[in-house]
């Protein structure tokens, strides 16, 4: 078993931090033991649809020829056309599609891959994240989400390495674009005060993971256990919370 926390080149992501928050054991299975897997065909279908949409969006914003006549799925074609109507390519903007930002500092080691970053005139910046599932999101949930904190923090903290010859950015915001509800999207504004709060939160969160003692962790059954990909071997007896792990 390899403790990835001791690898200084290991960067935390939204996914890895959420996994730890859901259950430290799930974090250990996935990132120490390298275990993955899900038998949920519904989820697989949803992921496939999302991947296709993201690929089309990437080609569009990188101005790679994307002929909608080659898209077989009618629903996917309609979603893509709505995206182009919402975000037409503008000559005075710069588009960074599927763009990765990394930070490997002493207290914050993070990485995020952005669906889209738009640099507008006068240093205005938009982060656009595409949500392709059918479940509606709420403004409160996205304002408090870990993804919002990470994406806004990383971009503001590292914008000089992203944008050449840009001394300062302003009016930075993050937009959640719901493909199924394209007229019901939410925007989170960002400022220096919120940035400092996010920096403290992320630093503390990562430190808590770094010092966590897995050997002394008392296994607990939580709601997430019911949908966890490791549920079939994590508990010998689901009625008991004192059983020994299969390692």
TrEMBL record:
<feature type="domain" description="PD-(D/E)XK endonuclease-like">
    <location>
        <begin position="13"/>
        <end position="234"/>
    </location>
</feature>
<dbReference type="InterPro" id="IPR038726">
    <property type="entry name" value="PDDEXK_AddAB-type"/>
</dbReference>
<protein>
    <recommendedName>
        <fullName>PD-(D/E)XK endonuclease-like domain-containing protein</fullName>
    </recommendedName>
</protein>
<dbReference type="InterPro" id="IPR011604">
    <property type="entry name" value="PDDEXK-like_dom_sf"/>
</dbReference>
<dbReference type="Pfam" id="PF12705">
    <property type="entry name" value="PDDEXK_1"/>
</dbReference>
């Amino acid at each position: 078993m390899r403790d990835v926390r001791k690898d200084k080149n290991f960067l935390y992501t939204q996914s890895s931090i959420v996994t730890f928050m859901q259950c430290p054991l799930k974090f250990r299975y996935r990132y120490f033991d390298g275990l993955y897997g899900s038998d949920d065909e519904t989820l697989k279908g949803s992921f496939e649809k999302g991947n296709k949409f993201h690929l089309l969006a990437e080609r569009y914003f990188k101005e790679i020829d994307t002929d909608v006549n080659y898209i077989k799925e009618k629903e996917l074609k309609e979603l893509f056309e709505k995206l182009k109507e919402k975000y037409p390519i503008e000559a005075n903007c710069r588009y960074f599609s599927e763009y990765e930002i990394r930070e490997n500092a002493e207290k914050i080691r993070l990485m995020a891959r952005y669906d889209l970053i738009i640099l507008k005139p006068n240093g205005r910046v938009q982060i656009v994240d595409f949500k392709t599932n059918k479940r509606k999101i709420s403004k409160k949930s996205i304002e408090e989400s870990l993804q919002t904190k990470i994406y806004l923090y990383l971009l503001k903290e590292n914008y000089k390495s992203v944008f050449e010859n840009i001394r300062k950015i302003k009016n930075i915001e993050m937009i959640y674009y719901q493909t199924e509800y394209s007229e019901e999207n939410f925007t989170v504004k960002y400022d220096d005060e919120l940035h400092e709060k996010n920096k403290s939160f992320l630093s503390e969160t990562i430190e808590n993971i770094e010092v966590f003692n897995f050997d002394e962790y008392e296994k607990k059954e939580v709601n997430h256990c019911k949908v966890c990909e490791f549920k079939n071997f994590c508990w010998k007896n689901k009625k008991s919370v004192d059983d020994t792990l299969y390692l």
